[in-house]
Amino acid sequence: MARKGDFTTKLKQTLARRVNDVCSNPQCDNTTSGPHYESQKYTLSGEAAHINSASPNGPRYNRQLSEEFISSIDNGIWLCRNCHAVVDSDDCNYTAEELLTWKQNAEETARKNQISTKRRAVAKSKPSFKELWVHETTNDSEYVPRQEVLKKLDGWVTNSSVKVITVTGIGGQGKTSLVGHWLQNGNALTCRNFEGLFYWSFYSEQNVQIFFKSLLSFAHNNYNLVTTKLREQEPLEALRFVFSKLSLCIVLDGLEVIQYELSSRSKGQFIDGDLRNFLMDICLSKKDSLAVLTSRFDIVDLRQFSKQVNHLQLSNLTNSEAQSLLQRLFVGGSAGDYSKINSVLEGHPLALRVFAAGLPREKQANPISHLNLLMAKLPVGNKDLTQKINSLLSHYERSITNIQVILLSGVSLLHKPIDENSLLALSLKRLHEKSHTVEEVSVKHELSALVISGLVLKEMFGKKFRYSCHPIIREFFRNKVTNTDGQGRLVGEFLANRPSKLIIEDTETLEWLVSAIEVLSESGDWLDASHLYETKLKNGLIIKQLATPEYGWRCSLALSNVNRKDIRPISIFSVSPTSVTNTRAFYLNAAGQFSLMMGDLDNTIKFYNLALQEMGTSSSYLNRAITFQGLTKTNIQSGELHNAHHCLANAMEFASKRNPDSFFINKLHMLRGELHLLQGELAQAKTRFAKVFNSFKLHRKNQTDFRCSSAYGLAEIELNRFRHTIAERLLDEGDKYAGLNQRQDLRLKGHYLRGVLHYQLNEFEDSSAELKKAEKVARKSKMEYWLLKISIMLAMVNAKLGLKEKANVIIEDCVDVSSSRKFGILKVDSLIARAAISLGNSDKHTTEIATDSLLEANRLAESLEYHLAFDFLIPLQNLIEIRNAG
Asked: PANTHER family given for it (predicted)?
């Protein structure tokens, strides 16, 4: 007869299987099952022990725990008989908290041992094979193999010409678990000459530079490479060296978190151009390396590599796959029931998992009635998948404990995993705020239950356990914080105070503060959020110094996208008088500036126009002038030169009213000179730049920037006239002033123009060196427009150096990216460069490519009024005519 609190037989088996039938005591590790002398039997020396006793007189009894919890899997741990006896007889030394830690660590070890079984076979056959799973894949204990998909992947990996495999599909389809299962349990790693595997999840760490450093560290620690090569070079250069020596399998999971989403024109493009260049290098590698990518979006940055990239678009689960998954999740019913559930939930794996997690026990044998009840609550008419999943999550929320809801909303706060100590501290703080007296061990039990459900992912990173969840779940439960009275402020203050550093010097610290600003803004505590942005982030200056414009974009969006009644007038720089309108316009302008830094012109224009709508005719003249200045820069980048002239005229008009700011006026003169230059009006451009250059004294710190910028502008004019001696002298002048203020953006332009100078002088090695210096600065500052401009020149230099294949790939990428991001001027430049590179060969096909490129460039330059382009177009057209005549 079962006693109160006893575990069921099925639960005992589950406890044993979750630790691979090994005792959970880290000092023991004894296997608890084995063969019996009779062939049909086995021996068992393990037992399911209670972490908290069911009996008041038993070890580690906790009267606050319910009878249901006492008999649940959360309160169980698998031990050998000896260890079970020891921990129960000495409960003072073996606390519930320690046993819970044993359990978690034992399950983590079992998971790693399970996924390494196949890989041990690989390592045994290839002793040099190394691997590093920097982050864990999702728990695939309930994974349903898609056999046809796995066969397709196996076929692709055997083809050494395939350099990249992309796995895409809507969120929750199991992309991560599919790739993890394929590599961990199949033969993929033995089908190709791989020397190692490196797995990285951008869900866990979104910083591309940290990924590069981790990959370089992996290469340095495991392979006999020349270490100075890895230490002295820039990350991309060092990685090119690595992939010239090694054949590695690189897995990049969750790329959608670093791809553009809001802009239809650039959707799916990488926010960080470095990653695009890294993958391009893999596509061009002569070794057998392979990159496996997962994302909710298409990988549009690799479109030109049709021969090297294979795409797998995941479809929904079939009825048989859904039945297998639901059965593993203890959902009962007939084959027809499973088919109906799969049909209603559109074969979406996450939807099926949430449905199973929220299914009441009494409904497990008859799930259809529960499904009908949930769907009946949705609005009549078209019920899309998002509505269905939100309905499932709403029911799931009601089916779990209050502690678990608080834990899930805590896991959902950051855009990256949250460490265990912070999660527990925040959850306890929120519980105590609600007058709930709860011990930390109880919160850990509830957290363990969420991990077991598969809806929360636990991983070890940086010597800490960290927790995350699917973006769909994150969005749902994050709203529980911001929509609950008082909780948003409490959580926001906790996030803001969590980083102990006074100086913000990394993205991990920045993530806490940016999330605090978002939570406070969304909760109605706008003034506190704005104060954080002003004091901790120096009104965005810290973000610019760290070259993380996406964080600035998140802050400015949160601070501007709120109800007007929540905004308070604040004093911001020289924008006056202070008002709600001016304050909101300031943050909309900031959103535009950060969007422009990321090269997202759609959102740049959107936010600047919203700022103008907000200000109407009543705002400060300077604020409106700043907005039109931003629109002028945007239109120059997009090639809309006519619109740029119109916006610049407006900026000049507003800036000239009421005590005009001479510094701001000169910024507008520089923009006017740039417009004259692009339109081929070199004399007018020279007049503007010379006026600015002569307007400022030599050594005043706040004036050297203008002398530097104008000197570079004058040098660019002389380069277009091929006056190399004068151009070099002006570049020396500009470099002198750039060095005084350590302005990296100005140094970038100086390196770029020197690259052009060396190219014109046929000094191609020197040109490449200068352009790579400029590229380094542009990458560090994430200046996408300049990166593309530099890449066009690098393509031409590579062609002159005999690197034709690389030159062709780079220039095709430039044509593609400039077109999709609508960088009109750069689209013309890239087409002209493609023609010039093609004419380096004398065959008929390349001449046709050049002809078509020049025709398209001619039409586009004419429509943009980009008349400077014709100085380069006409000589190439003449060359084609000579060839055709010959």
From this structure: HTH-TYPE TRANSCRIPTIONAL REGULATOR RV0890C-RELATED, REGULATOR-RELATED
